[in-house]
Amino acid sequence: MENLLKRKLHLGIAACQFGAKVRYNGKGIDLTQCLGRDRGQFIWTPVCPEIMSGMGVPRPSIKLSGGNGFDFWAGKANIKNKEGENRNEMVKKGAIACFETLERANIDAYVFMEGSPSCGVYRTSLKNQRLGNPPGVFGALLLEKGIFLISSIDLQSPIRWWDWKRRLVAFVWIKEQNVDSKEVLKDIWDKVKYVLYELHEEEAQTLRDRIRIILNSSDQPSKEIYDFIKTSILNLLRKPAELENIKKCLWANYVDLKQKENIEVKEIFEPHILRNMTHIAQELLGIEIEARKKNMLFRSSPINYKPDR
Ligand code: SF4
Fold this sequence. Notes:
Elements: E1 4-5, E2 9-14, E3 42-47, H1 49-52, E4 62-65, H2 69-73, E5 78-81, H3 88-104, E6 109-112, H4 137-144, E7 149-151, H5 158-175, H6 182-199, H7 201-216, H8 223-237, H9 243-261, H10 277-293, E8 304-305
Parallel strand pairs: 1-8, 2-3, 2-6, 6-7
Antiparallel strand pairs: 4-5
Helix pairs in contact: 3-4, 5-8, 5-10, 6-7, 6-8, 7-8, 9-10
The structure holds iron/sulfur cluster.
């Protein structure tokens, strides 16, 4: 199976993070500009649930009360604006309209804005330490539907973005594989296991043990077992890596490529050498480019994303 993804990925994004001035106070910022050439590697679908609710710009800010976004959909929490007016019906319709748009756009992932009572996933307030009632109304819908979620804040960090992109690409590549035989399962595992160890060693080891049992058994696994393993791998890929682990594995995987494949890249440093995160991102990209040129597997970023124009 070729470790190549050629389909151009579709990303949904909070419209206020794509430059649309749709926030309650008329503000918006285009964080995709931070991605440089990567911006053109995706098809973007910006949506704003609060605009689609019909509340307009500017508008009084809204707040979730009595629970989080899940409670809201269960009819146990409310959305009210600063003036105390109930906005439940409007917000519901706005969120559903946006979700239907994302479904039509066939998105592979969604870039959310953290801190909003609508779009927030891990916090619904931007006030210092306060988390609010996460997830927000739209955030809860996205979580419930199992969408691959990327925080827009991370678009500003080259290393964080690199981590999101390599995991998303691997996620979509695996999702599109038909895992119906031991050979396919082994092939997928051999390609992505290093990233999984880097993300969560303990969970990856548990998964490795399960896969070994399946591969060594004389029985043919059921579809449910294959689906379970596939979902477990996909779920691990949703979690961001610790920066320390990225640094450690960068070096180990580079040494592997150097020894086995004679790949040499300038300015790759051992983990103990201090340098900033932008430099580390450049190191990773440098190795990735060299490995792709020679058609070698770079364990830190195993799937080659080469979208058609
Ligand atoms: S956070 Fe979501 S609801 Fe708020 S302005 Fe941005 S896209 Fe609209």
